[in-house]
Amino acid sequence: QVQFVESGGALVQPGGSLRLSCAASGFTFSNYVMSWYRQAPGKERELVASITSTAGRTNYADSVKGRFTISRDNAKNTLSLQMNSLKPEDTAVYYCFAPVLRGIHFASWGQGTQVTVSS
Questions:
Q1: Judging by DSSP bridges, how do beta strands 34-39 and 46-51 pair with one another?
Q2: Which pLDDT belongs to residue 54?
Q3: What strands lie across the sheet with 3-7, from one edge to the other?
Q4: Which of 19, 20, 61, 77 could in theory staple to 29 by disulfide, Cβ–Cβ 3.0 to 4.6 A?
Q5: Cβ distance 117 to 90 under 8 Å?
Q6: Cα 21 → chain centroid
Q7: How many CB atoms within 10 Å of residue 81?
Q8: How confident is the model at residue 13 (pLDDT cuts 50, 70, 90)?
Q9: b/e string for 41-57 if b means 16 or more Cβ within 10 A?
Q10: Hey, which residues does 3 pair with through a beta bridge?
Q11: What average pLDDT does the structure give for the chain?
Q12: In this structure, what are the phi and psi dihedrals at residue 44, rounded to the nearest 5 degrees?
């Protein structure tokens, strides 16, 4: 069973920092691009950041570039997102994801972790 377990979300003040973690299992972690997505209330899920399987390349949404850093530890099957200079607009449920196919379906989303940026 493919599983993504996100953690680290919290209530934080604007300008603060958080580090999110994702423990992945049920697939060969090191073979896949890993991504962080987020979904704010009433909005579509959006891609925040991605990292290639060997960590050679990273990509970020313009809204988080320079503030967020995605990383991975293939030895531990974990994905991280360091979030600095947080803004209220960053408030969302954050999910990690890999395009793992099981039959004709992609793996299901995890439950995500809630990040709330507010005074």
A1: antiparallel
A2: 86
A3: 3-7, 18-25, 78-83, 68-73
A4: 77
A5: yes
A6: 8
A7: 26
A8: very high
A9: eeeeeeebbbbebeeee
A10: 25
A11: 97
A12: -75, 155
Q: What is the 3-state secondary structure (H, E, C) of 42-111?
A: CCCCEEEEEECCCCCCEEECCCCCCCEEEEEECCCCEEEEEECCCCHHHCEEEEEECCCEECCEECCCCC
Which amino acid is located at 110 in the chain?
G
Amino acid letter, 47: L
Tens digits of per-residue pLDDT, 17-72? 999 999 999 999 999 999 999 999 999 999 999 999 987 899 999 999 999 999 99
Instruction: Count other Cβ atoms within 10 Å, centred on residue 5.
Output: 15
Residue where the block lists tokens 């850093």: 69
- Amino acid letter for position 87: K
